[in-house]
Write a structure and sequence with these properties.
Blueprint lengths: L1 H43 L3 H17 L7 H16 L3 H21 L7 E6 L4 E5 L18 E6 L1
Antiparallel strand pairs: 1-2, 1-3
């Protein structure tokens, strides 16, 4: 009887640890998306300093994630894009870098579960660039206040 109890306890512990490891991985991945959204919001507000600071946080988080969670090719592309945003305080340049950054984030979101909530891909026809959003409301990061609602949702990841 003690052996059966021990075996059941051992199996329960093993599955519990696996589940915790999975949840921790998803939390780390979701941090990347949350930080991406913060960069986007800073660009919507035309705040270059905040965009650079949030991109710096993104770089730190991306560097701390293991290769199983964030494939090396994705890490390299995202770190370059975010690093470029960090290096400049020119909002126009940051927005240019953000276009590639958004494409790479969307590619990652298609292969990795970054959120339990839907991720909306919006498209700006004036800039011919996309971005990710947590809502269907259009807040264009490429033009800020001058064309805040320019764009439309073109895809949804669930």
């Amino acid at each position: 009887m003690k052996k059966i109890f021990f075996l059941v306890a051992f199996i329960a512990t093993a599955f519990g640890q696996y589940s915790f490891a999975q949840n921790n991985t998803n939390n780390t991945s979701s941090q990347l998306l949350t930080q991406y959204y913060a960069i986007k919001d800073a660009l919507v507000s035309s705040n270059a300093s905040t965009a650079a600071a949030k991109a710096s946080e993104f770089v730190k988080t991306a560097n701390s994630i293991d290769d199983k969670t964030l494939p090396e090719a994705s890490r390299t592309a995202l770190l370059k894009d975010a690093g470029d945003i960090v290096k400049t305080k020119d909002i126009k340049k940051q927005r240019e870098y953000f276009a590639g950054f958004s494409d790479h984030m969307f590619a990652l979101a298609k292969t990795t579960e970054l959120s339990t909530e839907p991720i909306y891909k919006a498209y700006c026809p004036m800039k011919k660039a996309s971005w990710l959003s947590s809502s269907t409301a259009i807040k264009n990061p490429y033009f800020g206040g001058s064309m805040l609602t320019c764009g439309k949702v073109v895809e949804t990841l669930k």
